Automatic annotation (TrEMBL):
<dbReference type="InterPro" id="IPR017583">
    <property type="entry name" value="Tagatose/fructose_Pkinase"/>
</dbReference>
<dbReference type="Pfam" id="PF00294">
    <property type="entry name" value="PfkB"/>
</dbReference>
<dbReference type="InterPro" id="IPR011611">
    <property type="entry name" value="PfkB_dom"/>
</dbReference>
<keyword id="KW-0418">Kinase</keyword>
<dbReference type="InterPro" id="IPR002173">
    <property type="entry name" value="Carboh/pur_kinase_PfkB_CS"/>
</dbReference>
<dbReference type="InterPro" id="IPR022463">
    <property type="entry name" value="1-PFruKinase"/>
</dbReference>
<dbReference type="GO" id="GO:0008662">
    <property type="term" value="F:1-phosphofructokinase activity"/>
</dbReference>
<dbReference type="GO" id="GO:0005829">
    <property type="term" value="C:cytosol"/>
</dbReference>
<keyword id="KW-0808">Transferase</keyword>
<dbReference type="InterPro" id="IPR029056">
    <property type="entry name" value="Ribokinase-like"/>
</dbReference>
<dbReference type="GO" id="GO:0044281">
    <property type="term" value="P:small molecule metabolic process"/>
</dbReference>
<comment type="similarity">
    <text>Belongs to the carbohydrate kinase PfkB family.</text>
</comment>
<comment type="function">
    <text>Catalyzes the ATP-dependent phosphorylation of fructose-l-phosphate to fructose-l,6-bisphosphate.</text>
</comment>
<dbReference type="GO" id="GO:0016052">
    <property type="term" value="P:carbohydrate catabolic process"/>
</dbReference>
<keyword id="KW-0547">Nucleotide-binding</keyword>
<keyword id="KW-0067">ATP-binding</keyword>
<dbReference type="GO" id="GO:0005524">
    <property type="term" value="F:ATP binding"/>
</dbReference>
């Protein structure tokens, strides 16, 4: 079973407009609502691929109740931890041409007791020895920047591998503290983490090795249209496929992480699956999750120890 923790879940509302007029009144032609938040998306993808999972999340107010209901409708096992303030709503505006504008709310302010209750719920599940713990997304107000350091400590105490997908200061704190099995930044998040621009494959590998040196076993760096790089202490792999026309890239990183965790295989095969899941996700609208028959493993090429001089945009 793969346990996921989404500290700042959301109701993801999407509105489709012909062309977004900034500053004007726009009338939507279609509207959707999905259960959202990065860890929740990982669980949704795992469920779609028959991998047992449990999503731990704080929920508050009517929107929190709606989120729990949507997870139930989609057959995603969830452990909601009640909080006083309302679960946030994140808004996606999709234009007919495919341009997507996203506005994410900060989320509820959790009290110290609520943060402790969330961590206690995670620890209770870690004691049952899941195969892995994934935590992903931003932190709600009130959660300390060292939140993921504490999660990593709990995972270590129960010897459960911990994979993290977050950004900014919470990522920096967790990486510096170490003890992570996997970190999944995109290239911009990794650049921010190491404080320099990443132009070539060699730049990414070097930056990822700094993360590894600080105590992370492997770094999965997603590169958008250019595929992904997996970097460990000794080796690196790149995987990517032919150009495609995306419908929505929202949640592609979550599908990538789910694909990496969804089965066994050597590092190259797991990376191939990760990239195939990400590619399948971008062909779907909104944060719809890819199904098994939409995964095209054969389209993805894997290269072991790719040439460090290659520019990322040439991959
Ligand atoms: N334009 C694209 N064309 C082909 N594949 C894409 C494209 N964008 C994303 N992907 C696939 O999805 C994966 C994840 O994308 P990306 O690097 O944008 O993740 P991310 O920034 O974490 O996304 P998000 O935070 O929105 O979930 C890529 O590694 C790739 O396989
Ligand atoms: O604000 P965060 O936590 O960084 O990201 C939240 C979010 O944008 O991530 C998912 C897509 O990856 C969406 O379901 C959700 O709205």
């Amino acid at each position: 079973m793969i346990l996921t923790l989404t500290p700042n879940p959301s109701l993801d509302r999407a509105l489709e407009v012909d062309r977004l007029e900034v500053g004007g009144v726009n009338r939507a032609e279609a509207a959707w609502v999905h259960p959202g938040g990065k860890g929740i998306n990982v669980s949704r993808v795992l469920v779609a691929h028959g991998v047992p999972t449990l999503a731990v999340l704080p929920v508050g107010g009517a929107d929190g109740a709606r989120l729990t209901e949507l997870l139930g409708e989609q057959g995603v096992p969830a452990l909601p931890v009640p909080v006083a303030e309302d679960t946030r709503t994140n808004l996606t505006l999709v234009e007919r041409g495919g341009t997507t504008t996203k506005v994410n709310a900060p989320g509820p302010a959790l009290t110290e007791d609520e943060v402790e209750a969330l961590l206690a719920a995670v620890e209770q599940q870690l004691a049952l020895q899941p195969a892995a713990l994934v935590s992903a997304g931003s932190l709600p107000l009130g959660a300390p920047e060292c939140f993921f350091v504490r999660v990593a400590g709990l995972a270590a105490r129960h010897a459960v591998p911990f994979a993290l997908d977050t950004s900014g200061l919470p990522l920096t704190r967790a990486v510096r503290s170490g003890g992570l099995a996997l970190v999944k930044p995109n290239d911009e998040e990794l650049a921010e983490l190491v404080g320099r621009e990443l132009v070539t494959v060699g730049d990414v590998v070097e930056a990822a090795r700094e993360v590894v040196a600080a105590g992370t076993r492997a770094v999965l760096v997603s590169l958008g249209a250019h595929g992904a790089l997996l970097v460990s202490a000794q080796r690196s792999w790149w995987a990517g496929g032919p150009c495609l026309v995306p419908q929505s890239t929202v949640g592609a990183g979550d599908s990538t992480l789910a694909g990496f965790l969804a089965g066994d295989g050597d590092a190259g095969e797991r990376l191939r699956r990760a990239v195939a899941f990400g590619r399948a996700a971008v062909l779907l609208p909104g944060t719809e999750v890819p199904l098994p028959d939409q995964i095209q493993l054969d389209d993805v090429r894997v290269v072991e120890d790719p040439d460090p001089r290659t520019a990322l945009k040439e991959l």
